[in-house]
Amino acid sequence: MDIFLSEKNRTVRRSVHTFCARELKPIANEIDQEASFPWDVVEKMGKLGYFGIQVPHELGGAGLDTVGYIIVVEEVSKVCAALGLCISVHNSVAVYPLLAFGSEKQKHKWIPALAKGEKIGAFCLTEPNAGSDASGIEATAIRENDHYVVNANKVFVTNGGVADVCLIFARSDPSAGRKGISVLVTERGAPGFVVGDLEDLCGVRANPVTSIRLYDCRVPVDNLLGKEGMGLRIGLAALDRGRIGVASQAVGIAQAALEASVKYARQRHQFGVPIAKHQALSMMIADMATQVDAARLMTYRAAVLSDQGKPFSQASAMAKLFASETSTTVTDLAVQIHGGYGYSKSYAVERYFRDARVTRIYEGTSEIHRMVIARGVIGS
Amino acid sequence: MEIHLIVCVKSVILNAPTGKILRSSDSCELNPYDRPALETALRIRDELGGRVTAVSMGPHSCAFALYEAMAMGVDNAVLVCDPALAGSDTLATSSALAAAVKKLSPVDMVFFGTRSADSDTGQVGPQTAVLLDLPLVTNVHAWECKDHGLIVQREADGFLERLEIGFPGVLTINPVSAPPRDLGLSSIDLVFKQGQVQKWSLRELGLPPGCVGEAGSGTRVLALSRADRARKCEFLEGEAEAQVDRLVERLLESGLI
Fold first, then answer.
1. Most B CBs within 10 Å, among A8, A58, A64, to test the B interface
2. pTM given for the model
3. Catalytic residue at A34?
4. Which residue range(s) make up the domain with A100?
5. CATH code of residue A54
């Protein structure tokens, strides 16, 4: 698995691993159960650059490449998938669009604080009636002089409860269909900006997923990202990167489940031998290790293609599909290996099992990914 | 006064070797006991002004440990690297490090961890101090800066000892002295883009090959095998109070308390 990694990448991995083992591991179960966001750890992560991984140094970021980014997401997700999700979403679908499509003024206004984790970013596309079909959004942004008047009901917003800077997708031209969607950078605290209740989720519970609603919220025209009508293009470009992040999050969860299973299977004795000696178990572990390895390689491939400036949409879609499905399979097997204990909150595999499940749903379901991949393979 | 501090670091083997030791960033890490020494030197530098140089000895693949030191904030890094160093024991290693410290002089203080996580001898710091003919304080738990030196505190056998040590000197740093900082991603990126590790061969150090490697070693490892720790489980019977008495008795018998 290390063939893609430079000494710099390895140093990144070791340092993130060490930090998460000390700061996050001891609280991972507790923040999952209490559905609480660990601000103190997040603040430290911000100072260490985890919230501006690919942001250039001059804007206060760490200046790493996509491979560096997925290493951080994988290592954090191994310990706490909810914070892996927070970092992945913040970096790839909140900060990246500002970097790629923002004006110099916009970049300097928002990115330095986002890169240091002093502000948290969110991506607000999904609505009650628009999920997989993003072009079906109903939010509106009607221009009035130097403002847009935005009305929106965004649901399942990752980081929603803590986000300061939200990318709101809304129709600036309700008659223009797919080409009438724009992105407006909206800040928490603006009049009419309302954060909904926390979703009581099955997994990734330490991430404050909420709805965000805007009622006649006046957003300055200067906050338009790119140009009017570029919304879907910006969203899809962001999601291409986001998918690499979700894939690495899924790889992290699966790796954690694999390591826990190997440890347990060596310790647990039945019929006079460690259960790892039973062929049924060892075959399971062999399959788990192989699938995790393949998922990681696919994820690295997508990241390397992105870093080389080559097309990576297909690779990132395949990596996201395979890694998320692998993650649910592997965590399911991990519960099986742990038996009754695996179904109990005493062992972390129960959390991994719940955390993995959502990776097949967000940032494009497995089914949408199969559609996208099929279109790429067969042609439209 | 701009001070110059040197920290000697080692990349240690992560797992007990089963055959020939191949040192790389996958099989090794920066000795965890060296991180507090680096942290201490960096804090003293920040207080007094000056620079910190990290020095290590090992093959090229060990340079990663020095990059980590630079990502922590060290100003310069030197790797003493020569095929003739292979097989060096702690004395030969100390000879090489002492030669590097001399070449880096003037120096105000040389820092070591108390020991290495792999070979666990704790000899290299003190031996290097002797070879450099410098005063030494081992197992330093706390420090404060004074003019032209440091006040240090060491703990030994239940006693706290406060000592004054002038520049130049040598310290071995106990891990409690300064919890090491985490590496920021930005520092890692910049160090690998811009940082450089100087590599010095024996020739550049002016050391004859006979002083180091197997030839310069007073000891030789004859065999290395995994130590098996026998574990046993003992159940104490009876009422809770009787169990506690018996437990205390057993702990006393075994010398654990």
1. A8
2. 0.92
3. no
4. 2-120
5. 1.10.540.10
